[in-house]
Write a structure and sequence with these properties.
Chain lengths: 195, 386
């Protein structure tokens, strides 16, 4: 009886001491309850697979006079045949138009000068030997370099739309020089008015 | 007598807690933040819980060894709920003892791994963080979010278009990303809880590579509207747009310093891609030297401000790091698209293999790599939630 009482007081003393050292912090809760994660509901695609972009919430983004507002492209048909042999090819990691490619751009300029209602879209592409966002910018630089050449030939800048796909849309699959050289390119798409 | 036994057990928990608070050497033998992994032995767990614990600990610097070589012993069970005890084998002292209820065994295992990381490495665990990334679906792609280890992936978009460069808004469950949905690469923001999204930038030309400032109030991005792709900054909703860099050869992949004052980006203004720093207020960019690593792109600034991780192209793509002040760079692993975890230690990145991209984890100090086994298909451009 005596022994049990002294053990008890010893333990009590130890407990008080340990509380004093921990700054009276209550001991760790033995079981940690993890509240159920609130998983966001999947985004609800609207009709036609489009996500809800609410009218009125789009900021009124402006256009720069020298470049085409992408929204006007909805009024044009895309013709990929007319200039399919005029694709401009580039050197690795370069956006400069090579001499060998200039005549292709001249063909396109001639068509645009003779067809005042037509526009052109230039699609800039890269091979896979670059990081993705670097290539997205490089593809844009290639498209813009072709556009600049068209403008120098007398085509109005507001008739030339550029879009980059980086390395997302290779013309040729494969991981070798032959494929890469075909993929570093600028493609022309003729835009004709819908009515 | 039973009551006294219970009392003694409670007391042990209290005393071990005291020892930990009083003497940190008990839990930190040697240089555990260094380049050598922490040696641990794990026993008693099974199935999914065992693999979660091992994955989480591995990518945060732990290596699994036999009991005789271990600096730490983790023992426990997962019948019904996850329970674990962490022991220092030298002193036989219990460093922590934990049990969990609620949600799934998977989440409980992440929680236990987090507490072990915090007890030993004194850094916040990443077990319950998220990543966002894009996955190719034939000629189109979609944005996905998942647990950091790739589990519980779900699509955030379903547009059947091309998407790119997802990034998290700090401290919010919201993403910014590029989508070609409206026939142009434009930047969108999307609140994950509601699915509501807004157009942040839809200017003529390229709009891509959004990066949100650490205070969440601004977005840095690449726009080509001025005639070449350059860094621009706007309010988080796209308003008050201003041009930051004016480099004819263009720029790509901006990221923010954690104090929000500086932007790091890549440019090939000298012919080959290199990293540059520019004040978020504008001004002249200055070159960040990354000695030994050519063609530097895709910088990401560590949350602790010390290190920039980036991709160098030297034949193959390599994940590299350099001090934020520049200098000698370190080559860590083959891969691209790096993004820091909130712990400034682990990096998620993409690795090319067999014509596709595989999301992988890198523990930067120990240079050890692990693939995310739960993700199939070709996925890239991961971004870690912060």
């Amino acid at each position: 009886m005596m022994k049990r009482a002294s053990l008890f007081s010893l333990l009590t003393l130890a407990a008080i001491l340990s509380l004093a050292v921990t700054g009276c912090k209550s001991p760790q809760k033995p079981i940690t309850d993890i509240p159920g994660g609130k998983r966001p509901p999947p985004v609800n695609p609207g009709p036609g697979g489009a996500l809800a972009i609410k009218p009125g919430v789009e900021p009124g983004v402006g256009t720069v006079p020298i470049v085409v507002d992408p929204s006007v492209l909805a009024n044009y048909n895309q013709d990929r045949e007319t200039f399919k042999n005029d694709t401009v090819y580039f050197d690795f990691d370069r956006a400069a138009v090579k001499k060998s490619e200039q005549s292709k751009i001249e063909t396109v300029a001639g068509h645009l000068k003779g067809n005042r209602s037509h526009m052109v879209q230039i699609e800039g592409h890269c091979d896979e030997r670059g990081t993705e966002e670097y290539n997205r910018a490089l593809g844009e630089r290639r498209a813009l370099a072709i556009r600049e050449y068209l403008v120098r030939l007398g085509v109005d800048a507001d008739r030339v739309h550029t879009i980059t796909y980086g390395e997302d849309r290779p013309a040729v699959s494969g991981h070798n020089d032959a494929a890469w050289s075909k993929n570093r390119r600028g493609e022309f798409v003729l835009l004709t008015p819908k009515n | 007598m039973k009551r006294i036994t219970t009392f003694i057990c409670c007391l042990i928990v209290a005393i071990s807690g005291t020892a930990r608070a009083q003497d940190p050497k008990v839990v930190v033998p040697g240089d555990l933040k260094g380049t050598r992994p922490v040696l641990i032995t794990v026993s008693g767990f099974g199935g999914e819980v065992d693999s979660v614990l091992r994955f989480d600990l591995f990518v945060q610097g732990f290596e699994f060894v036999t009991a005789d070589k271990a600096q730490f012993q983790l023992a426990g069970s997962n019948s019904g709920r996850v329970e674990g005890r962490l022991i220092d084998p030298l002193t036989k002292q219990q460093i922590l003892a934990k049990a969990y209820t609620g949600t799934s065994l998977r989440t409980q295992a992440h929680a236990l791994a987090d507490e072990i990381v915090e007890a030993i490495l004194h850094m916040k665990g990443i077990g319950r963080t998220k990543i966002a990334f894009k996955c190719d679906k034939g000629s189109t792609s979609e944005i996905y979010i998942a647990d950091f280890d790739g589990h519980n992936a779900e699509a955030a978009t379903a547009d059947g278009s091309i998407v790119a460069a997802p990034t998290w808004a700090p401290g919010r469950r919201a993403l910014y990303y590029t989508s070609y949905k409206l026939s142009n690469p434009d930047i969108y923001s999307q609140t994950l809880a509601s699915g509501e999204r807004h157009i942040v930038a839809r200017y003529s030309g390229l709009n891509t590579s959004a990066a949100i400032s650490p205070d969440g109030r601004h977005v840095a991005m690449i726009l080509s509207r001025s005639g070449s792709p350059n860094v621009w900054i706007a309010d988080a909703d796209g308003a008050n747009l201003r041009q930051v860099t004016k480099i004819p050869e263009g720029a790509s992949s901006p990221c923010w310093s954690p104090d929000g004052t500086t932007i790091c980006f890549s440019s090939s203004s000298t012919g080959r891609a290199a990293l540059y720093l520019v004040s978020a207020a504008g001004g002249q960019p200055r070159r960040l030297s990354t000695i030994g690593t050519p063609n530097a792109t895709e910088p990401d600034w560590s949350p602790d401000g010390k290190t920039i991780v980036f991709t160098s192209q030297m034949g193959d793509f390599q994940i590299c790091t350099v001090p934020a002040s520049g200098g000698e760079a370190a080559v860590l692993a083959a891969g691209e698209d790096p993004s820091w975890a909130p712990n400034s230690r682990t990096v998620v990145f993409a690795r090319r293999a067999g014509g596709k991209r595989i999301l992988s984890m890198l523990d930067a100090p120990t240079k050890r790599v692990k693939e995310l086994p739960a993700i199939s298909g070709s996925c890239s451009q991961p971004s870690w939630s912060k």
